[in-house]
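To whoever is on call:

I kicked off a structure prediction for a single chain this morning and the downstream step that reads the tokens threw a length-mismatch warning. I double-checked the sequence; it's 134 residues and nothing unusual in it as far as I can see. Pasting both halves so you can look.
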Amino acid sequence: MDHGSGRMESNERLKIVAEKVNERIKQGQLSSYLGCSHCHMELSPPTLSSVVKDVHDSKGVKEFLVHPLFISPLGKHVKVDIPEIVRTTNEEMKGEGVSVEMGKVFGDDLDKLVDGILSVVKEEEDGEGGEGPG
């Protein structure tokens, strides 16, 4: 789950990320996961509720783990808004035996976050950057 955007290109990016995660799952990199879907917190579909309902109805999945893609695990969206969305989705699906949990936030691991930042900066230094100034 990301924030969501009024810009379709931005929302499409998360869909591509989910597709790439699914490729890695199929290659055996995450053996305990059946698949990855994407959703947005607000501003654009799909919502968590719609994804859970669609995946449950089409594949019979009953357990869902939501990983918020936010840099900080301390902000209002991660601490308040997303847990409320998860709670509401659980209420909507309780008759179906579905469980939705919030997993680790992308930005929880500062070392991985810093490694990613340094990797991007290094690419820019080496003239390999794609979309940044240079």
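Update from on-call: the warning came from a stale cache, not from the record. Cleared it. Sanity check on the structure: The beta strands are 63-66, 99-102.
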